[in-house]
Structure formats: structure tokens, C-alpha cells
Amino acid sequence: MKSMRANKIASFGGEGFQYITTTSAYTPAAGYRFVCIHMVTAGAITTAGNPTGNLTAVSLPASFPLYGSFNSITTDSTAATAIAYLGREG
């Protein structure tokens, strides 16, 4: 069983991040998932892998944090940038 501290670190992206700046699909390394997508600039994103459903071309404002469990993130334009925080799977 994980400690409360380890769970907190994992759920708040304590495992690092990826800076998303292109329209390519971003996927985390094996054993990781994105736990928060923080929009740096406004734009539309598409996600995959959230246990409760995926988002397709959803517009989000700048400074918006989207929490979940995602295994893929794509922006719809290069104007949309985000920081995707990593957490370990399981």
C-alpha cells in the first residue's frame, strides 16, 4: 500500500511533466499517465484513456487545470499549449 505522501505526489504530477506545443499526440512513458493538463494558452484539446470517457476537440481557457487519468493528449492547433503532469499508473 502506498503512503499518503506517495499518493499525494503521484496525484499532483510529482513524477514530472511534458510541455505540449504541437498538434502531435503526446503520450507518457510506459508506466505513467497524465494526471493533470494545465492549459498555458487557450485552445482545444483531445484526450484519450480517461476511465470515464474521452474528450474530443474541447475548448479550454488559459490557466485551466483539467484533472483525470489520460494516456494521450493532442491539441487542435499550435496556438494551444499546455503542461501535462505525469503520475505513475497503478
Query: If helices are DSSP runs of H or I spanning 4 or more residues, what is the number of helices?
Result: 1
Q: Tell how many strands the DSSP assignment holds.
A: 7
Structural class: mainly beta
Proportion of strand residues: 35-45%
Unreliable segments of 5+ consecutive residues:
none
- CA radius of gyration is 13 Å
- Helix percent reads under 10%
End-to-end separation: 11 Å
What does this structure look like?
This protein is mainly beta and 90 residues long. The chain has a single domain (4-88), classed as Jelly Rolls. The protein has one helix and seven strands. The protein has one helix at residues 4-11, and strands at 17-20, 32-39, 43-48, 58-60, 65-70, 72-75, 82-88. It has a four-stranded antiparallel β-sheet, covered by helices on one side. The chain has a three-stranded antiparallel β-sheet with strand order 4-3-6, with no helix packed on it. The longest helix is centred in the first third of the chain and has 8 residues, at 4-11. It is globular. The model has no long low-confidence stretch (mean pLDDT 85).
Concise overview:
The protein contains 1 helix and 7 strands, in the order αβββββββ.
Relevant terms:
globular; 90 residues; 7 strands; 42% strand; Jelly Rolls; single chain
